[in-house]
Write a structure and sequence with these properties.
The complex is a heterotetramer, with 2 copies of chain A (285 residues) and 2 copies of chain B (301 residues).
Chain A lengths: L7 E4 L2 E6 L3 E6 L10 E6 L3 E11 L2 E7 L3 H7 L6 E8 L12 E6 L3 H13 L6 E6 L25 E5 L6 E2 L2 H10 L6 E5 L2 H14 L3 E4 L15 E2 L2 E2 L6 E3 H6 L6 E3 L5 E3 H8 L3
Parallel strand pairs in A: 8-9, 8-12, 9-10, 10-11, 12-13
Antiparallel strand pairs in A: 1-7, 2-3, 3-6, 4-5, 4-7, 5-6, 13-16, 14-15, 17-18
Chain B lengths: L2 E3 L2 E3 L3 E3 L8 H9 L5 E2 L16 E3 L4 E3 L12 H8 L5 E5 L4 H13 L4 E5 L16 H14 L4 E5 L6 H10 L4 E4 L3 E5 L1 E2 L4 E2 L5 E5 L4 H14 L4 E4 L5 H10 L3 E4 L2 H5 L3 H15 L4 H4 L8
Parallel strand pairs in B: 3-16, 4-7, 7-8, 8-9, 9-10, 10-15, 15-16
Antiparallel strand pairs in B: 1-2, 5-6, 6-14, 11-14, 12-13
Helix pairs in contact in B: 3-4, 4-5, 5-6, 6-7, 7-9
The chains are: A alpha/beta (285), B alpha/beta (301).
The complex binds flavin-adenine dinucleotide (2 copies), flavin mononucleotide (2 copies) and FE2/S2 (inorganic) cluster (2 copies).
Chain lengths: 285, 301, 301, 285
């Protein structure tokens, strides 16, 4: 008879600054039932509520990694241990691992590494190694969970090992796009059986194009403005898909049928606009 | 279960409630293909409006509370969408709102030219001319807005009522007298408020929100029952319907069609298909038709 | 948690809702000993009244629906009971109702002479002079009945409001202006109706009934929040309170005391003791007092 | 999330006439979780709803036995197989069996046999035999589940064996009261360890008096007008006890503390009256 709780209030247990002033991971000490790729609605009382992927999960702790973009995310990275926030979820479907161990490649654009990281963790825990992890960003300070210049960095490198990096400005790794590195890998004849990609929609679109050309299954994680998080309000629809419940993870077959993938998105007022307009609206003001 | 409603052929008795998913042609079409006979668009307003900040929608377990705040691109900023909808192959209901009688009429006239199959007017909005009093709680303002809209549109008109009216049947009568072709009942119940005791503040950014889902079904059934007694025009019964049995109950109260909103959360988008099947199974096992049971709860024993 | 309310010393913040168990001194005393600070009698009417036929009360799982129909022995046929109550050792609230202002006043004057600690007037009843319109939905009738009762009684007066009022805060103001010493909010929500689809008829013999219990809590919290903004007199917050956290939420909305009704079904008669303990635990772990958190949800962040 | 059902609709599966025009047992084919002594609220659509003890339970069937008193019970015994009725419950506490096998005596006055019968069934199923079953009534046709005049009676004798009968008018068995037979038994020095009694309140009061004199634990089942059946409306209060939830079964210690036992009851309007007035009001009109 007792109604289920609308949300859970929890205190920030630890904050790890990923890049000063730009990004941070907030940790919460509570168990959570979760599939990598799922997200929570994260409420800062008096401010707003937005969706964030869980970027870290262990039996008694979970974390979200936030990039400071607008007002909300700036307030989020300014939170301190002890601050009280609200969590609803987890919501969404999450990534699907292959039934059998397979040659997997991860392609992360900037903060697209956040949802992919716990999936890599799961793979490593299963005793499997990804074939490759390709991580690109605009510039060095947007690479996540990594800075090879500072071996004593705190936090330590999240997934040490053979990782491939690139930056748009060449400040770290290859100067260019993640797709260059992916094409490189495929050009060398690597047998890739599954690709997971997350990052800007245009990047994911390019990755999907490449994978479909090579007939490699690929999963991507989409981002849309969200309200309910559970499939009723319609704020997050992308074509005929409801991102918060059907997604946020979709496979290449789904996105290639999706009228609005890499094309259109809804503004907060429901207006359907092309992605450029959408991202302009989403820029910090 | 096939039927005709205000001259529109419908494949069954289920209707998508306004404000649920109906933000674009693609998703409306998917809802239609998931078994819904008549899909309603998210309410369209007179001007662009972002709605409220989040949190806007919360699940209470036995229903939900929302204060989305009627976000709308504005009726005259949806050309692309109207173009796509012109090429639709499913029946469409366009829901509209305004803050004054003139605004309702302006939006309705424009929308009518886009040829939806029917227009629903959401009269649960604050009436800016009457200091925030809600249109749908007074017979005179309900009459006024329905008459004004009726004059400027070429498609049938549904008046969507709020249970906050102390006597919803008299509001329904006023709407019928003003020319409404059907009634949709009900909009959300309340409003309600959920306070988070840790942060000591209302959880919804707008503080108050409307209740929907299973917990409001008794209120919705009572409203439909009262309205059925009072009017001759058909009723879309809406509020808490989650199963075929809920829909049958609403039909027995007097509804011709049954709307579904929050249940999309609880049973998925194909809730329309599920509910239709369950209704059919019930009717078959009871060897009767919708017409046999419509308003059956009004028969005295 | 000890407090004083309208001059009455109370051992904690819980109040027994009217119509719940309060049919005799013995059971009222037991409720008091089960942890309740202020017990309210079942509403007393102007004449003997059997109430409605059964079914009168149904459990909906997330709350209940009832149409008991205000059974009452009639205020002047309870001598034995009044004698026993005269020898009580606990604070008592007598709830009364009428069908006209004169009836309210007649019952109130008589009951006042029996010296309850406080009289609550239930203004959710149909006003026979105004064609069944409910007293509590109009400011003028609410003002009238409270003023009339206030003049003839010697104990403090609580006005118990119905959430069916389109603007409950203005009703509360009218009651305050008319001399009410406190507000109790809310009575049941709705009304609602449950139709049994097999027998095709409303389950409640009276067909419609009021909703109570967990599912109405958001409505009750919103009402108390609205009333707190509007009046200076204290509020008994009532509606869906089942746990200490629910009670804390109601206090944060602005209540001074917290009423409990339906939760007796869900947690037993000692729900008063349980809720008080849970409130105390919460206050202790948050290192604060009721006064610290009363109305806390009104502070802007 | 789906709300629990307010009630269950069910069809009468079988009707067994106990005494033509006076009483019948209605059977329903459905499983029910039940303790002897518990009751259900029995709704005849369009008529009324009243509490009835379950008088019979097997894994797939249960029954209630109704004595025709007023309008409702007359309509109830006139129901036929196939008729649709509503059931809420079971409600109440039910009888408590001794922890160890014990010498038990059952004392049933008239339709007081209805709640006791499934308790006797339970005992028999446990392989125990009651020390005695004393069954009395105003007249022969009010004895339940029994008529020795007709060995082919349908239904058969419910609990064949050594039963003791009495009637007020002497039409069957001992002419006199069940208390006579109980005192007899005790006078013969029988070691009685537990008594279960159900019948008119005055009879139960007398049995309780006897048992307390002999320090034999005794349980009785009370009857009051009921509305909700689950402890909120207060219609059924008896002193400080709530009959529908604290009872209907109370032990001798409880009833001897109960101010209103064998003394007062509430009318439908809530007026508290002495039992005579209450029973006059309850007579068929
Ligand atoms: C499934 C999912 C998972 C996500 N996971 C992550 C993650 O792990 N890490 C991460 O950093 N981000 C994630 N995001 C993005 C995140 O939800 C926020 O959109 C992001 O942090 C930007 O917030 P903000 O600072 O713009 O807020 P705001 O302060 O609101 O943004 C600044 C301005 O831009 C506008 N604006 C910005 N974003 C939006 C929007 N979404 N809707 C409406 N208006 C907007 C506002 O009008 C505002 O004025 C995820 C999004 C989704 C859908
Ligand atoms: C826990 C419990 C278990 C019971 N178990 C059984 C059982 O197993 N078998 C059985 O036969 N009976 C049982 N009863 C009694 C049963 O509930 C009815 O009271 C009885 O059948 C009489 O119903 P009726 O025909 O009087 O109804 P009515 O037609 O209502 O009675 C006729 C008249 O008497 C008045 N009246 C009679 N009874 C009541 C009442 N209870 N409340 C208010 N008005 C009344 C009415 O005003 C009416 O006009 C039980 C009662 C309780 C509380
Ligand atoms: C998130 C949400 C948004 C809604 N938006 C609208 C709206 O824009 N216009 C409208 O008329 N009703 C709106 N409603 C009300 C629904 O159409 C419906 O009347 C109500 O939810 C009751 O039905 P349900 O219990 O099936 O959800 C909304 C409801 C919800 C839950
Ligand atoms: C069975 C029942 C009977 C009631 N009778 C009365 C009554 O006589 N007078 C009154 O003012 N309120 C009455 N109420 C309303 C309650 O006092 C209370 O306002 C309402 O139930 C909401 O509180 P809750 O959710 O804690 O039950 C009754 C409620 C129930 C469930
Ligand atoms: S956020 Fe509401 S439907 Fe996706
Ligand atoms: S019947 Fe309602 S309290 Fe017992």
């Amino acid at each position: 008879m007792t109604p289920s709780k609308t949300h859970t209030m929890i205190r920030v247990a630890e904050k790890v600054i990923e890049h000063p002033g730009e990004s941070a991971t907030l940790y919460f000490d509570a168990p959570i039932t979760f599939t990598p790729g799922q997200f929570v609605m994260f409420w800062i009382p008096g401010v707003d509520e937005k969706p964030y992927t869980l970027s870290f999960v262990s039996p008694a702790r979970f974390g979200i990694t936030i990039e400071a973009k607008g007002i909300f995310s700036q307030k989020a990275i300014a939170l301190e241990p002890g601050d009280l926030v609200g969590i609803r979820g987890p919501f969404g479907n999450g990534f699907t691992l292959p039934d059998e161990p397979a040659h997997t490649v991860f392609v992360a654009g900037g903060f697209g590494m956040a949802p992919l990281a716990p999936l890599i963790d799961t793979l490593l825990e299963n005793g499997e190694n990804p074939l490759a992890v390709i991580h690109g960003a605009r510039t060095r300070s947007h690479l996540l969970y990594h800075d090879s210049n500072d071996p004593n960095r705190n936090p330590p490198e999240r997934h040490p090992g053979d990782r491939q990096f690139c930056t748009d400005d060449g400040s770290y790794g290859h100067k260019g796009f993640v797709t260059d590195l992916l094409l490189d890998l495929l050009g060398k004849g690597a047998s890739v059986e599954q690709v997971y990609a997350c990052g800007p929609e245009i990047m994911m679109h390019a990755v999907v194009q490449i994978c479909r050309g090579e007939q490699i299954p690929c999963q991507v994680s989409l981002e849309r403005y969200m309200r309910c998080g559970f499939g009723v309000c319609g704020a997050c629809v992308c074509g005929e898909q409801v991102v918060c419940t059907d997604g946020p993870v979709f496979d290449d077959t789904q996105v290639s049928r999706m009228a609005d993938f890499n094309r259109r998105a809804l503004l907060k007022n429901g207006q359907i606009v092309d992605l450029d307009t959408y991202f302009t609206w989403r820029q910090p003001r | 279960m096939k039927t005709e409603f205000l001259g529109i052929p419908l494949k069954n008795r289920t209707v998508l409630a306004s404000g649920i998913l109906g933000n674009s042609k693609d998703i409306l079409e998917r809802v239609y293909h998931s078994g819904c006979a008549l899909v309603t668009m998210k309410s369209i307003g007179p001007a662009p409006r972002d709605g409220h900040k989040n949190p806007t929608v919360l699940d209470l377990g036995h229903g939900m509370i929302n204060a989305v705040g009627l976000p709308s691109p504005g009726y005259d900023r949806m050309e692309g969408e109207w173009d796509e909808l012109a090429r639709r192959n499913f029946p469409l209901c366009a829901s509209i709102y305004g803050g004054s009688v003139a605004e309702y009429a302006r939006v309705a006239e424009f929308v009518s030219q886009k040829k939806p199959d029917v227009i629903e007017i959401n009269i649960s909005c604050p009436n800016s001319e009457k200091h925030g009093m809600i249109f749908g709680v007074h017979t005179d303002s309900a009459f006024e807005v329905v008459s004004a809209v009726k004059q400027v549109i070429n498609v049938p008109l549904i008046a969507k009522l709020t249970p906050q009216a102390p006597d919803i049947a008299s509001i329904a009568c006023a709407c019928e007298d003003a020319g409404a072709d059907a009634i949709c009942a009900i909009n959300t119940v309340g409003p309600g408020m959920v306070i988070d005791i840790e942060s000591r503040q209302p959880v919804l950014a707008f503080k108050k929100g409307g209740l929907s889902g299973p917990m409001i079904k008794p209120v919705a059934v009572r409203c439909v029952y009262d309205i059925f007694k009072a009017v001759r025009i058909p009723i879309i019964g809406l509020g808490g319907i989650t199963t075929g049995e809920d829909a049958i109950e609403m039909i027995m109260a007097g509804a011709s069609l049954t709307g579904i909103g929050s249940a999309v959360r609880y049973r998925g988008i194909d809730v329309f298909d599920k509910v239709t099947r369950e209704m059919n199974d019930w009717l078959e096992s009871h060897n009767c038709s919708i017409e046999d049971i419509k308003g059956a709860a009004h028969q005295e024993t």
